[in-house]
């Protein structure tokens, strides 16, 4: 192997979408900085964080974008989706309306990106299992219907957060290699 190949790098853009307050920003801060904020407020402007991991001895950088509150106005811009190769579609397992919105978010994603985008449906706030409004089966069924990976997570207690991002990053890597 040449030294060129040894230092090969990948940069993957991943977007996080879903209704307001489902936990998108906290999933990102949990993954990228191991932080959680009980009273997080939507910040202005588009933001992303970069997280690196190694696959097959290669450095893979995931550039993960957060809507930063744009979704409140039902107007996530096309720039947000541009160049994305992965997406997490997030709902809150305690609020059915956020689950009902999944189809709309998928439509928007599909309009703005090509079909090879690796997608995962994420039911967040698993720590609130005792007040859930959407069953695991319902989540699984919708994911299966649309050909998405599926995972329930908790940004609060870290359940499956790293796993969700790593599955999507591995899938993107498989799609391009
Ligand atoms: P966003 O609007 O989708 O970015 O949602 P935020 O990340 O700002 O989170 C909205 C609210 O839900 C905040 O009060 C968070 O503290 C809370 N939250 C986010 N993730 C979780 C979680 O996994 N469990 C619980 N119990 N609360 C969460
Ligand atoms: Mg947010």
TrEMBL record:
Key word Lipoprotein present: yes
GO cellular component: endomembrane system
Localization annotation: Endomembrane system
Any one GO molecular function term: GTP binding
Organism: Carnegiea gigantea
Topology with respect to the bilayer: Lipid-anchor
Family that this chain belongs to: Belongs to the small GTPase superfamily. Rab family.
Keywords: GTP-binding, Lipoprotein, Membrane, Nucleotide-binding, Prenylation
Protein name: Uncharacterized protein
Main location group: membrane
């Amino acid at each position: 192997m040449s030294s060129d190949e040894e230092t090969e790098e990948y940069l993957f853009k991943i977007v996080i979408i879903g209704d307001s307050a489902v936990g998108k920003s906290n999933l990102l801060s949990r993954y990228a900085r191991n932080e959680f904020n009980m009273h997080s407020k939507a910040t202005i402007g588009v933001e992303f964080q970069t997280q690196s991991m190694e696959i097959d001895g290669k450095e893979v950088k995931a550039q993960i974008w957060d809507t930063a509150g744009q979704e409140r106005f039902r107007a996530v811009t096309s720039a947000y989706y541009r160049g994305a190769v992965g997406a997490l579609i997030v709902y809150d397992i305690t609020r059915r309306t956020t689950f009902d919105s999944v189809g709309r978010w998928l439509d928007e994603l599909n309009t703005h990106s090509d079909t090879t985008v690796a997608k995962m449906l994420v039911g967040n706030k698993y720590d609130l299992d005792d007040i859930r409004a959407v069953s695991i089966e319902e989540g699984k069924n919708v994911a299966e219907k649309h050909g998405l990976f599926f995972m329930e997570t908790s940004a609060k207690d870290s359940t499956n957060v790293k796993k969700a991002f790593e599955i999507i990053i591995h899938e993107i890597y498989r799609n391009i290699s």
